[in-house]
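Question thread 4412

I'm putting together a teaching handout and wanted feedback from people who do this every day. The idea is simple: show students a protein as raw sequence, then show them the structure tokens that encode its fold, then repeat with a second protein so they can compare. Below is the first pair exactly as I plan to print it.
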Amino acid sequence: RPCIVFIDEIDAVAKGRDSRLRSVGNDEREQTLNQLLTELDGFDTNKPESVVICMAATNRPDVLDSALLRPGRFDRRITVERPDKVGREEILQVHVNTQDLPLSDDIDLSSVAAETIGFTGADLANIVNEAALLAGRKRKDVVEHADFADAIERSIAGIEKKRNFLKGREKYIVAVHEAGHAIIGTAVSNLLPNLASEVEKLSIVPRSSGALGFTYIPPNDDRALMFETELRGRLAMLMGGRAAEDA
């Protein structure tokens, strides 16, 4: 019967071979790769009743052995990009439907998709799960937009470490640093209204990611290119924190 063979994380067994770096420890990996190549060449695809379609996935295509990618093996490559706004909304809807989450009337998944520019499908799945957990902890009957906002913030900056509040001089330095980011970020947004986003949130609460605070300036749309003025503005915003400390 026809069948589909799917190999996930194929880079684990099909990394490129380099004779200059070859060692005894790599023998098993090379034998595995050689056997995989042999099996791929052994499929008889001329008989419709015995067609085997081989598919593989990796997030490191640059390390794959060239022999694996030659015609007749994995010769058709499809790049899965990060989803755009429409794709993110559809992915969010899939996970909401899968979990059968009751949503409040104030939730518009289109707006949630607009707030998650650059997120992958796995990131979006995690956000839906996190929003549901946050709503459950607050004993809510429905998931509200605030729960999604908190879930997005956790995904970007990490979980708040509410028992480790900053004190004294340390708190002052972090506050000044984040204020510097926010001031310059706001100035850049006013100077480049069509390119730079506005500052959305400022915090000096330590996070599980290791950050002592953060200034959140979300991207305003899905774009593949950044202009020089936009890059200069972003650099100025990033340096604004250190400049504020020296002021």
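The second pair follows. I'd like the answer to focus on this one:
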Amino acid sequence: MTDRSVQSDRSQKTGQRHWADVIAERIVAERGTRHVVSTGITPSGEIHIGNMREVVTADAIYRALQRLTPDCRFNYVSDTYDPLRRVYPFLDRAKYEREVGKPLSEIPCPCGEHVSYAEHFLLPFIEAMRQLGIGAEVIRADQLYKQ
């Protein structure tokens, strides 16, 4: 069964609609049929359920909008240009103390296998989104600033 048929089947049986469909219908009614759903986080540490909840919520609204209008996009903005705010407990203090205040995209990767600190934490998050079937376009903020 597709998303659409599952939703339709549930609505017909219970008379209730999914919250994302209610929101999408209101958005289309108030703002027309062209939309960009955008969400994002700062990749400053390990992925946690709060990070994923934000993306899953946006994805649900995006999918509901897609059922109403094909003219919509879904962006995930990674705040890779945010500064390292402090030396987190999982970091080597001697190595990262001098990096505080610098953009995450300009700081060395903790394990040495990624291009930057930001990519070290962003890539597993992108993989988790892929595994969940979330197809947002990933936008790295540092690349926007550099354009």
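Top answer:
Good format. For the second protein you could add a caption like this: The chain has one domain: 3-146. The radius of gyration is 19 Å.
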